[in-house]
Structures are given as C-alpha cells and as structure tokens.
Amino acid sequence: MKTINKTFVTIALLTAAILGVSSNAVAQKKVNIKALFWMLPADALPEYLPQSDKQGMESHIIVCDYKNAYLELGGGQFTWEMCYWNLKDGRKLVAVNRNFETGPLLRFFYYENEKLTEDEDYNLFENISIKLEDFIDVSKLNPDIIKKLRKNVESFKYIIYYKLPRKGTSLKLRIDHEAVTEDFKSITYETFKELTIKWVNEKWMKQ
User: Fold this and answer.
1) pLDDT band for position 8 (50/70/90)?
2) What is the pTM of this model?
3) What is the SS3 string spanning the chain?
C-alpha cells in the first residue's frame, strides 16, 4: 500500500510540474507586442514621446501588428521599431531598433515571468563573420580600392543599419552608403546590397 501511495504521489507531482510549465508557457505567449511596448524602460523610447500621457504616446504608434509581433512609432525624424521572437522555453526575445542622427541603437530584452530584462551583452554577430561581399557587389568595383574597402567594412568602420522583420523572422542589414561613398568616390549606389540574417534554431545565421 505504501508503495502504491508513493507511486501515486510521484505521478501527481510530475503531472503538476508539467502542467505548471505548460501553463507558464501559455501565459507568456498571451502577452502581445503592445503590452511589451508599455513594459520598455523610458530610455528605450524616443524623447518626443509624452511619457506621462499614455494616450499621447499611443497616438504615435503608426503600426501595431499583433499577428506578426511588430510595432513602429511615427512622429520623429528617425526610425523606431520593435518586434519579438518566441523562444522554445516560453520566453520572448524582444528587439528595439532606435535610430539617431549618429546611427542606430539595437537593444535586446528577454520577456520571462511577466518581466522584461535587457541583455546588455547580446551579440548579434556571435555566429556571423561580416564580409565585404555581404554589402557590396565587388564585381562592380575598381580593383584598386577593394583591399582598403574590405579592411574598412570588415573592421566595422562603417555604421550598420538594421530593419526588423514585420513578416518572417529575418533581419535586414545595410552599411552606411554615404560614409562609404565619401571615402570611395567611384562607388555608385547600385553597388550596395542588403545582408539578410536568418533566425535558425534560435541563432542568427547569414542567408
């Protein structure tokens, strides 16, 4: 009888644990992109937002795509957008792409247990090696400039701009065209390309 009781208790505890994990994952999935927007720290938002006025802040939302987990603000000179990816463990990876006159600031947060926590050490390029060919069609270049240009691009001399996905899960990247053409007058805008990095098994990979 004691053995049966112990077995029953063990099964009951395991069932409760499994249900607890499942309900936690379901609860986390219920949060939407706008709810995550309201959870962001003040320094992740543009200065022009009236942060003491929720209705005023809401009026600056020009895209709120719940289905594709994407939100974009308008009313400023530079792009501000956010999105998230669902992780296998029930968490969400939240990205905020905020642009300034000096360039973009891409920040990553994790949503877990109803809290949003920034990962200040998040490395988008952990599994990616940047090459000149990712951003420029070298077949259209003067051979004399390739060596120096390659060094500049692959050492991250030029700012990289990002575009978060509204559809799909991939990020689009491009380098600062104006900075490159200022250094290399012979390069035309038709020479530039976008780099797509794909979200594969919760890692970033070049397409």
Assistant:
1) very low
2) 0.83
3) CHHHHHHHHHHHHHHHHHHHHHHHHHHHHCCCHHHHHHHCCHHHCCCCCCCCCHHHHHCCEEEEECCCCEEEECCCCCCEEEEEEECCCCCEEEEEEEEECCEEEEEEEEEECCEEEECCCCCCCCCCCCCHHHHECHHHCCHHHHHHHHHHHHCCCCCEEEECCCCCCCEEEEECHHHHHHHCCCCCHHHECCEEEEEECCEEEEC
